[in-house]
Automatic annotation (TrEMBL):
GO MF annotation: an example: maltose binding
Keywords associated with the record: Signal, Transport
Organism: Macrococcus lamae
UniProt lineage: Bacteria, Bacillati, Bacillota, Bacilli, Bacillales
Gene3D superfamilies listed in its UniProt record: Periplasmic binding protein-like II
Name by which UniProt lists this protein: ABC transporter substrate-binding protein
Family classification: Belongs to the bacterial solute-binding protein 1 family.
């Protein structure tokens, strides 16, 4: 009896150790070929879609076996840093967001891919904004998988109840404010609940870019220019002046209210599709309305990158084959709600029969990315803290942006 208990205890410890060593991973079925480790942060409902692409690639040939390891989004870049600094085994290929590429390229821990591009992967096969977003100082560092811009979602039932056409989303800032007022009933239903935290990282720069402004240029922070100030004042007025939003909205408060049918319009990313579908809410999706004079929407992207530690030519060739296969077969990725960046998919009839994804692709031409600066995350943290303070009524718009500008400028290296 004691031996049985001891054996069970040992097995439990062993299982914990193995789980800790393996992290959050999904190894695809092997085909007997040489293993290539592929890291991705797709720990949400999009993970199974990428897993299917990997499995289909492994079935298509026998020389290499791509092993997909999914690392949770919140821990992804911490894990990447450990690997690329030699403190953990690095993958042969991984996904990197567009706003991270410059930082890692300047650290020389991911390699230029200009020589990697050949017959199977061609620049003209991809949307130009996606491709250009992976370049640093004229060199290519990534192959695009998608572009994910900010999107507009609305409750069709609440539109109909307010006398608005449920098949017609607002297309201008004026229409948006008018709709928001009509959709606010004074009984706990709001036209547009203004988030004070995420996803302001997509909403706020969209408004700034549409105003014709820039947040940083030539390493100089410019948060106090009129385009930036007006963008934040507009959002604050929706709360305190127009009163189409409640005050003191906390993290995900706008999303919770949207799912509850208490928030008629919201902004978020394409990754929300599966959650909205499962909720059963009768929603519509469209490109973000035009608030300013310039057509623009903030976007990020997923890209395939290769660490500089990968030297083997055969492995690089296998990665090229896999990335090319993933692009041409990214209709599976589109099923997660995303719009792949390769033309053969987003221009196809099959893709354009989908509900949300063609709306996402409509924003490709006006997609704009983060400022051209290293360490955008730490640099922008003071900005979004300032946005939060202004929208909570803790600071004036001008003071919040001035304080943020001083701190962001110090964070630029």
């Amino acid at each position: 009896m004691k031996q049985t208990k001891l054996l069970m205890a040992l097995l439990m410890v062993l299982s914990v150790v193995l789980a800790a060593c393996g992290g959050s991973s999904e190894s695809s079925k092997g085909n007997g070929g040489k293993d290539i480790t592929f890291w991705a942060p797709f720990s949400g409902p999009d993970g199974p879609n990428m897993k299917k692409i990997v499995e289909e690639y492994n079935k298509s040939q026998k020389d290499f076996n791509v092993k997909l390891q999914i690392v949770p989004q919140n821990d992804y870049y911490k894990t990447v840093d450990l690997a690329l600094n030699g403190k953990k085994d690095a993958p042969e290929v991984m996904i990197m967001h567009g706003d991270q590429i410059r930082t890692y390229a300047e650290k020389k821990v991911i390699q230029p891919l200009d020589g990697f591009i050949g017959n199977k992967i061609k620049k003209d096969d991809y949307h130009k904004n996606a491709w250009n977003g992976t370049e640093v100082e004229g060199k290519l560092y990534g192959v695009p998988l998608d572009i994910h811009p900010l999107m507009f979602y609305y409750n069709k039932d609440l539109f109909k109840k307010a006398g608005l056409d449920p098949e017609k989303a607002p297309t201008t800032g004026e229409e948006f404010v008018d709709y928001a007022k009509k959709l606010t009933d004074g009984k706990g239903q709001y036209g547009f609940v203004v988030p004070t935290l995420w996803p302001q990282q997509f909403i706020f720069p969209t408004l700034v870019y549409q105003n014709g402004g820039k947040l940083i240029e030539n390493d100089k922070v410019d948060y106090t220019n009129p385009a930036v100030v007006d963008a934040l004042q507009f959002e604050k007025d929706l709360i305190f002046k127009d009163k189409v939003s409640p005050e003191n909205v906390q993290q995900d408060g706008e999303l919770t209210m949207f799912l509850q049918g208490k928030n008629a319009m919201t902004f978020n990313g394409p990754w929300m599709m599966n959650q909205f579908d499962k909720s059963g809410i009768n929603y519509g999706v469209a490109p973000v309305p035009q608030f300013g004079d310039k057509e623009a929407v903030y976007a990020n992207s997923h890209n395939f990158v290769i660490p500089t530690s990968v030297k083997d030519k055969d492995v690089k060739k296998a990665i090229e084959n896999f990335v090319a296969f993933a692009g041409k077969n990214s209709m599976e990725w589109a099923k997660s709600g995303q719009a792949p960046a390769i033309k053969s998919v987003y221009e196809s009839d099959e893709f354009n029969k989908l509900k949300q994804q063609p709306q996402v692709a409509k924003s490709f031409d006006k997609a704009m990315f983060s400022p051209n600066v290293s360490n955008w995350g730490p640099v922008s943290d003071p900005l979004y803290k300032g946005v939060n303070e202004a929208l909570l009524g803790k600071k004036s718009v001008e003071d919040a942006l001035k304080d943020a500008a001083d701190k962001s400028q110090k964070a630029i290296k």
